[in-house]
Amino acid sequence: MDRLDWGALVRRARERRLAEGMSQRDLAALAGVSVPTVVKLEKGDTSIRLDVALAILTTLGLAEDPSHSA
C-alpha cells in the first residue's frame, strides 16, 4: 500500500484551485464547507476531518466521491 504524502496532496489541491481560477470562498461554497476549513487544508492542517478533506478534494477532481464507489 502506498503512503499518502499529505503535503504534496495539499500543494496539488491549492495549485488546482488556483488553476481553475477559484478563490478559497468559491471552493468552500462548491464543497459545502467553511472558508476557514479550506484555509486549514491549504495550510496542511492534519486535524481536518477525512470526510471534509474528501469533499474539498472531490470538488477539485483530486479524489473520487466515496458515495459513488462500487
In short, what is this structure?
The protein has 70 residues and is mainly alpha-helical.
Describe this structure in words.
- The chain has helices at 6-19, 24-31, 35-42, 50-59.
- The protein has 70 residues and is mainly α.
- It has one domain (6-60): 434 Repressor (Amino-terminal Domain) (Orthogonal Bundle), CATH 1.10.260.
- The longest helix has 14 residues, at 6-19.
- The radius of gyration is 12 Å and the shape is globular.
Topology:
Layout: H1 6-19, H2 24-31, H3 35-42, H4 50-59
Helix pairs in contact: 2-3, 2-4
Percent helix range = 55-70%
Q: How many separate structural domains?
A: 1
Given the helix and strand composition, which structural class is it?
mainly alpha
Q: Identify low-pLDDT runs.
A: none
Q: What is the highest CATH level, the class?
A: Mainly Alpha
**Major sheet attributes:** none
